[in-house]
Each structure stands twice: as C-alpha cells, then as structure tokens.
Write a structure and sequence with these properties.
TIM Barrel; eight-stranded parallel β-barrel; 33% helix; 20% strand
C-alpha cells in the first residue's frame, strides 16, 4: 500500500499544536522541507527550530532544497531520519550521496519539473528513493503539473525492466483528485502538505489519499 509523508511546510500558525497533530495522525512519515533561499526562492525552518519540535514518534523524511547540502546533511543526520533527499540539480550531488551512505542514511534524489527523468537512471543503483516534483520547488499550495504522471510511469517501467527496487515518491500538488493516478503510475510514497494540514481532520485527508 502507498505510504503518506505529511509536509509541515504549510503550517503557519499554531505550529507546535498542529505539528503535534501530524505526529499523532496516521501519516507514515513527517516530511521536512529545508530551504535556504538560494537554491529555491524561499526559506523554511532552520535546524534549531526543527530540533525544538522534533518528536521520535514518526519516521522523518527530509528534503534539502539548498545550495550546499553537505553542511545541512551534517546537521540533520543527528535526527536519524529515514531518508534525506537532495536535488539532482545540485553541484554537490555525488559528494552528498557519498556522505549519506557513509552515515547509513537512506539516499533520496529529487528532480525539478523541467529535469528529464532519464538523467536519474544512472543513479538508481546507488540511491534508495527518487522524489519527483509535481510543482516547482520552493512554495507549498501550487497546482500539480499533469506531465508528472508520465515521468513517474516512465521511471517505473525502466525500473521494472532493469530490476531496480528504488522507491518513487512525488511531492507538490498532491491531493485526492490525483492520488489514484499517481498510485497507478507507480508511486510508493505521496508527499502532501496543505491538502492535509489545512483540514481540521488530518486522518480523514490521509485516508482519502491512501484509499483513493
């Protein structure tokens, strides 16, 4: 069954209270979007803020949208996350993959909407997860880019043909109108933020995604 990773990026008020609701929900992962205002035109939480609200009840899935992921990896490995995802478009890609593997952290690599999915194929033997962006990274609440589904199908077929078991995740614009298509295309993890956290009933929204 598909797993859900709930992004807390869209939580603007009652931060501790609403994050506690996420921890106590049926979500499979907490998705942390870390942005430095350089790699993408926005900033998010810093390590101190995350560390203050961190709770070990749920596995953590960290997405680094930063110019220099090395220093962030050295910070965030202290949280013992399930995955740390870096961007294919980053100049420190291979050094970051090595650092994560050296620290026994599962490696995710993300691609922006305009990056060809074929470029990720050569990395599949060395990574654990591919995170395909359904929106331009940097801001929550954007409209889903429909061609994302074709990229997922293409990647899934390539992995089946070559016996790769890398997980496929999708982030951005994920809601109950596209979750069925995303799952059928081959997604293993759906990352969703505002669709869940803008609701009064997180579990109801999570179940809408899981059970289509």
């Amino acid at each position: 069954m598909v797993k859900i990773s709930t992004s807390i990026l869209g939580i603007k008020s009652n931060l501790e209270q609403d994050i506690l609701k996420v921890y106590n929900s049926d979500t499979d992962y907490i998705h942390l979007d870390i942005m430095d205002g350089k790699f993408v035109p926005n900033t998010s939480f810093n390590y101190e803020e995350i560390n203050n609200i961190y709770n070990y009840k749920k596995p953590v899935d960290i997405h680094l949208m930063v110019e220099d992921p090395i220093k962030y990896i050295n910070q965030y490995i202290k949280l013992n996350p399930s995955y740390i995802t870096i961007h294919y478009e980053n100049q420190y890609l291979y050094d970051s993959i090595k650092l994560l593997k050296d620290n026994n952290i599962k490696v995710g690599v993300s691609i922006k909407p305009n990056t060809n999915i074929e470029l990720i194929y050569k990395l599949l033997p060395d990574i654990d997860l591919v995170l395909i962006m359904g929106v331009e990274p940097g801001f929550g609440g954007q409209e889903f880019i429909p061609n994302t589904i074709n990229k997922i199908k293409k990647l899934k077929q390539y992995m089946l043909n070559n016996n790769y078991n890398t997980l496929i995740s999708v982030d951005g614009g994920v809601n109950d109108t596209n979750s069925c298509d995303l799952i059928n295309a081959g997604c293993d993890i759906l990352v969703s933020g505002s669709f869940i956290t803008n609701s009064n009933d997180y579990n109801k929204q999570i179940n809408k995604l899981k059970y289509m």
